[in-house]
Each structure stands twice: as C-alpha cells, then as structure tokens.
Input
Amino acid sequence: MRGVKRYTNATFTKRVDHDGGRHRPPRPPSEPALCPGCGAVYVRKHWSHRAPGRAIARRADQPLIVRVCASCRTRRTGVPHGFLHIDGEFFALHREELERLLRNEADQAREDNPLNQVLAWEDLGAGTLLITTSTEHLAQRLGRALEKAYDGEVHYGFSHENKLAHVWWHR
Output
C-alpha cells in the first residue's frame, strides 16, 4: 500500500485520569421523572412544564421517579447564577409596569425551560431593584426585554469561570 505508514513498534502511553471523572457530566435521571419542588417533568432528556400527559403515563409495574431538578437544587442552595440590577428615575415612576413585564417574561422563560427561575426580588430602596436568577441566560433575557420595551442603557458583565452574569439596566 502506497502512501500509508505502518507503525510496527508503536508505544502507547496509558492515560492517567487525576480528576477522577469530574470532567464527565452527571448521568441523566431515568425517565419519566417528576420534580416535587416545581412540578417539572423530565421526558426525552429535557425538563419541561409542558410535557404531554401521555409522556408521563407509565405501566403499572414502572414507578414514577421523583427527582429534584437543577433549578430547585440551585434555589435550595441559594447560589444564583444571574443578577439584574434596575435603577433610575424612569423605574421609580413606572415600577408596576416594569415589574409586570419582568414577571411575564420570567414566566415565559420558565415555561420554555423550567431551569430558568427567579430566585429573589429585592427592593434595595431609592428606586433600585435587584433580581437574582437561577441561570445567567434568564438575567440576560430580562435585560433584553427591558431594553426592547423601554430602551434605556443595558450593560452586561460575565464571569465565565463560575457561570455568572450581571446585567445593569438604567433609564
């Protein structure tokens, strides 16, 4: 065979894994699984609130598995992955409208993906609101919704090492 190199005396080194499996993702739960905290259903390798009834239908000999979803674990540990800071004179004047928009957007995001949850709404006084979220994507989504609806200035800050997002909106 022309052009093909043959290695007859090749030596291979054995890979040593010092991390002990930390690089592997956790094994997905068995299906169907139900989260007791938020009621999300794990079907087809995805947590969803919109799972059809037949997707969680099971045989009489197959028990329904109860698992806590990642978002409820985050809520229990209290470690947020996203922050949305809202301030400004416009916010103080139109607070109810803005909060309604943010709650609707958060509900829609949670319906799309149950892992997107608002962990806390904190009124910091002086027309300032801090919203903590379970994912960095939800904080970004809320910031984009405010920018789209009411303009203003939006700034994004990321920490890629620990998956953390800070979003500041001001008008």
